[in-house]
Amino acid sequence: MTLALDPDQLISKPGRLQHRQSVVLFSQNYLPMTRVDLKRATILLLSGRAEPFDLGISGTQTWQMRSPSLVVTVPEYIRLTFGRSERIWKVPPVNRREVFRRDGHSCQYCGSRKDLTLDHVIPRSQGGPHTWENVVTACAPCNGRKGARTPEMANNNWYSYINTYTICYSDTISNTYNF
Predict the structure, then answer these.
(1) Cα–Cα distance between 58 and 36 in angstroms, integer?
(2) How far apart are CA 43 and CA 26, in angstroms?
(3) Half-sphere exposure of 22 toward its Cβ, with a 13 Å CA cutoff?
(4) Distance in angstroms (rounded) separating the CA atoms of residues 78 and 101
(5) What is the mean pLDDT of residues 133-149?
(6) Which of 168, 155, 166 is nearest to 119 (CA)?
(7) Strands 2-5, 62-66: pairing kind
């Protein structure tokens, strides 16, 4: 099915399209992104930033956009030819809600679920970073007992648990976010 539309007929009032035809825009990875109007689809096709995309579905609609010197056929589906080939994932920020969620809303030293706080395994006062590998959930009593000391300095018997947990979790984060 082909419809012939003159770009001047599309605009009835400034900024408003008379016809509500739209084109499905796919990313470079063939993932559907959004719908764009015929004018935007025509601009993308003419500038070489998009190409017609055939899904192999019979009965797909096309439109012809006409100018005095050119006729452009705009298909129902177009695919971008520029952009990143793969989405780059960002590491989420370290914050209370996300750390609690990661640690299952329980103290990583004793397992308590009450009066939770954040604890830096290597304290900030000793140069410990505020990163996923160094921040854990701790209850207020455990956090107070540990204070501004490393687990080795505090001579706690739960150091092996927290060290193992942090190493395992940092491996998971590294694999998930491609560090």
Answers:
(1) 21
(2) 15
(3) 8
(4) 40
(5) 91
(6) 166
(7) parallel
pTM: 0.44
Tell me how far apart the terminal alpha carbons of the chain are, to the nearest angstrom: 49
Q: Is the pLDDT of residue 161 over 90?
A: no
**Which tokens hold the place of 126?**
């000793």
Query: Which among 6, 82, 75, 3 is positioned nearest to 36, based on CA atoms?
Result: 75
Mind listing the pLDDT tens digit for each residue in 62-117? 899 898 999 999 999 999 998 765 566 677 889 999 899 899 999 998 889 999 99
Q: Look at strands 71-75 and 135-139 and give their pairing.
A: unpaired
Structure tokens at 118: 């954040």
Q: How many CA atoms lie within 13 A of 148 on its CB side?
A: 4
The token pair that represents 132 in the structure block? 């996923």
Domains and CATH numbers, the chain: 2-80 (no CATH), 96-177 (1.10.30)
What the block records as the tokens of 172 is 């998971």
